[in-house]
Design a protein that fits this description.
Elements (H helix, E strand, L loop, with lengths): L12 E2 L11 E3 L1 H7 L2 E5 L8 E3 L1 H13 L2
Antiparallel strand pairs: 1-2, 2-3, 3-4
């Protein structure tokens, strides 16, 4: 992880693996990842809260872990 400050205007996309009950929603910023290689992840319920900054490998690991529980 890094402490890189995110740009002001990000387009966040809800994960297709997020639960349908509204309680387990994760969002990420794909355009930012494509432009910088930094994968930003946040809780969709706390949009003004902190977010994680992951490497490509870190993001892949997070996705693998999340999909193993579905």
């Amino acid at each position: 992880m890094s402490s890189t400050e995110a740009p002001r205007r990000l387009e966040w996309v809800k994960s297709s693996y997020s639960g349908g009950d509204g309680g387990q929603c994760v969002e990420w910023a794909p355009a930012h990842a494509a432009a910088t290689g930094e994968f930003l992840v946040r809780d969709s319920k706390v949009q003004e809260g902190p977010h994680l900054v992951l490497s490509r490998a870190g993001f892949a690991g997070l996705v693998a872990l999340a999909t193993s529980y579905s």
